[in-house]
Amino acid sequence: MNGNTLQHDSDAHAQPATPHLALLHGSMLLSGFGTIFLGPVLPALAASAHATDSGSGLFFTAQFLGAFVGGITTSSRLWFSLIRGSAAAALGFALLSIAARQHASLPWDAAALLPLGFGVGQMLTSLNLLASRRFPTGRGAALSLVNFSWSLGAVLAPFALGSLLPSVALPTLFLCAAAAFAAACLMAVINFRQGGPEATAQKRSATRGLPTTAFVYFAALLVLYGGVETSLSGWVTTFGTRYGNGALGSSALGATALWVGITGGRALAPLLLRSLPERTLLISTLTAATALVAVLSQSHGAVMIVVTAGLLGVALAPWFPLVLSAILAEGAGAGEVGTIIAVSGLGAAALPLLLGVVSRESGSLRTALLVPLLGLVALLALSFRRASVVDTQA
Asked: Is the pTM of this model over 0.85?
């Protein structure tokens, strides 16, 4: 009896349930930076590694593979996963710095991106789960705010790297990123050892795991959403150059507006959730996003495209946090959440490619926007079915 009590007390201290808000949001901001940074530095990194365009694709493949493995191997010991993830990301950036300084060949840079992607994948999953544990009531609003920090890191990455690269050497930038992730790792270790003010008072929440049907259902949602978001963010600049009557610089504002809209929308979502149920907000924003993609496909002029893209970002913003909240509410474990998040990358790889194929075959990028439009229609239909899926499994 005493042994069981001691073991329970040890578990409660080993897995504190209240990470400090500074750690939660700061680490999530770094995760957003670590997810997006490769695009802005790609020209400089490819030049350093003497890589061709086809060879540069290996960088993204390595980062995705690392993130996928990181997501599916996230442990139920969330603090361990957070510390391991931030340490792995710091190691990856440090190795990238060394490879860039030595002008190493492409395989060395790609190898460095494996632990980096692994670390970011572990951090993203563990941070979302730690946030849901800290705020068991109002989980959707809490996850929206945490993912606001991720979006902020993703938005700031291109601006920060674009302004620093002309004057700061690429290896130095990577070394600074490694230091930032190492600092996050150290903060996590300190928070883990000290615990938050309520860490010793809360028990670890038990998770029962998802039924197979629910797991497949949520995975399908994330695959579709990953494909829709990446298709729109990846192709909206090209759409602007063709139909916005603008140069590349002004056309790129469409992608910026989309990400700013996602960031602002995630800050706005908690306010809306004070008066709206999560499911109502989910359905209404998906409906708005579907309508806005239809409007975007018929848009003319740079201003209309940029404004529509910004509103589309706001409409898409609450979707991921609210669906993640639903996944956790149904008892998903850490590994299941990590796997579901990781498979969204499959959609992110497939749907933009399909959009490009449709554009080529039809001769119209407007027509090709049917790909994300139909993806949103499918998401909307599946979202209406969520209650019936849960009832079937009950």
From this structure: no
